């Protein structure tokens, strides 16, 4: 018998369908209203299919449709920092910390801030360290030179070479084994990059408000950096170029973050056609919130945003971000309603421990003058 879809829907009226045998699906002709080659599925067979599907789903380790908290939690176990924020050793990426604010600055202007092994290590070191800095409330990601980021450097194969602790290696092996069970990867070699795929995700889950300030154009994987930020501003002369498909690659790492910023249809078109577009178009598509004349004006906008963030409860800001990621893409069912109520209750018990004093407003967030970029 030809393959059939047990959940296929037909245009014919339900009452026109003939009675089905309980022993096997019955093929009926046009007179039955199903069309030639169609199958009437007994109710008990449909029930068995649903029961088996429910059983398979319950056996899964992760249930993102129920575990909203896990869907919005960073995974820092896979990475071993090469240095701390206090003992910063990187040259290709600068880290500057001010009062309530930190700057991650791509510092390869002569190479258009292309992403290399050393740049990736510095980026991950900064993200890892900032997860444990509640005193920092705003994180700026920017660059020096004429371009924000030109994407992956051709000299780097994308495989990080930094040493990892035994705990990180063990966590990576567990994640690879988990990935292999899905059947998505043919072998362990294909799945070897799985542990490194959470760098942008961990940046997305930083407890601070993250602001991308684009000093120039951005290409390729640099757009992944842009899409990982909560808020983005760029100079009006900047262009965005997604050229991966032109060299035979799929922009896979950034795809999930692109669809968080813009519609699925727009993201698909951009990836398939390798589009290049200007700053105003980026704003219209949701990638950018502020288009500024130059970096001096960007500094002014940054001051304004930091002033607004000062008024916000840092715990509430963090939970709002986690809530948005946790419920993203879910239908508004009871589980979502309960999860949102849980976060509301948590904000009541953590934010108002000192009544309406709003202690966070007593400490300002001050962008560094002159701007460190």
Descriptive overview:
This protein has helices at 43-59, 68-71, 117-130, 166-181, 199-204, 222-227, 255-261, 264-273, 279-284, 295-310, 314-327, 334-351, and strands spanning 26-28, 38-40, 93-97, 101-106, 138-143, 147-149, 209-214, 217-219, 231-235, 239-241, 276-278, 290-292. By secondary structure, the chain is an alpha/beta fold. It has a six-stranded mixed beta sheet with strand order 3-4-5-7-9-12, with helices on both faces. A four-stranded mixed beta sheet has the order 6-8-10-11. The protein has a two-stranded antiparallel ribbon with strand order 1-2. Helix 3 (117-130) links the parallel strand 4 (101-106) and strand 5 (138-143). The protein is globular, with a radius of gyration of 25 Å.
Quick structural overview:
The protein is an alpha/beta fold and 373 residues long. The chain has twelve helices and twelve strands. Helix 3 links the parallel strand 4 (101-106) and strand 5.
Detail the topology: elements first, then pairings:
Elements: E1 26-28, E2 38-40, H1 43-59, H2 68-71, E3 93-97, E4 101-106, H3 117-130, E5 138-143, E6 147-149, H4 166-181, H5 199-204, E7 209-214, E8 217-219, H6 222-227, E9 231-235, E10 239-241, H7 255-261, H8 264-273, E11 276-278, H9 279-284, E12 290-292, H10 295-310, H11 314-327, H12 334-351
Helix pairs in contact: 7-8, 11-12
């Amino acid at each position: 018998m030809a393959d059939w879809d047990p959940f296929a829907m037909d245009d014919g009226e339900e009452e026109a369908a003939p009675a089905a045998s309980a022993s096997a699906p019955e093929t009926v002709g046009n007179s039955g209203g199903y069309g030639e080659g169609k199958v009437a599925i007994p109710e008990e067979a449909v029930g068995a299919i649903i029961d088996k599907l429910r059983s398979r789903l319950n056996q899964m380790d992760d249930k993102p449709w129920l575990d909203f908290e896990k869907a919005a939690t960073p995974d820092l176990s896979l990475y071993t920092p090469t240095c701390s924020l206090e003992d910063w050793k990187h040259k290709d990426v600068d880290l500057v910390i001010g009062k309530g604010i930190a700057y991650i600055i791509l510092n390869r202007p002569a190479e258009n801030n292309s992403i290399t092994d050393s740049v990736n290590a510095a980026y991950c070191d900064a993200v890892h360290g900032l997860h444990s800095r509640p005193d920092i409330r705003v994180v700026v990601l920017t660059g020096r030179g004429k371009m924000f980021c030109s994407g992956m450097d051709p000299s780097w194969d994308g495989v990080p070479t930094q040493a990892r602790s035994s705990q990180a290696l063990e966590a990576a092996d567990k994640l690879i084994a988990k990935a292999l069970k899905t059947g998505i990867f043919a072998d362990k070699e294909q799945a070897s990059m799985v542990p490194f795929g959470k760098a942008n995700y961990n940046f997305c889950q930083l407890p601070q408000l993250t602001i991308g300030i684009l000093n120039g154009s951005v290409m390729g994987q640099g757009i992944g950096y842009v899409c990982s930020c909560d808020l983005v501003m760029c100079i009006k002369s900047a262009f965005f170029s997604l050229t991966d498909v032109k060299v035979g690659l799929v922009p896979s790492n950034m795809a999930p973050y692109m669809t968080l910023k813009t519609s699925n249809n727009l993201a698909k078109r951009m990836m398939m056609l390798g589009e290049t577009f200007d700053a105003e178009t980026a704003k219209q598509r949701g990638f950018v919130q502020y288009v500024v004349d130059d970096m001096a004006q960007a500094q002014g906008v940054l001051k304004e945003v930091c002033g607004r963030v000062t008024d916000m409860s840092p715990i509430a800001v963090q939970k709002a971000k986690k809530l948005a990621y946790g419920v993203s893409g879910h239908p508004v069912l009871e589980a979502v309603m309960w999860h949102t109520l849980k976060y509301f209750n948590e904000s009541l018990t953590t934010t108002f421990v000192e009544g309406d004093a709003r202690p966070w407003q007593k400490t300002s967030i001050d962008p560094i003058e002159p701007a460190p970029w």
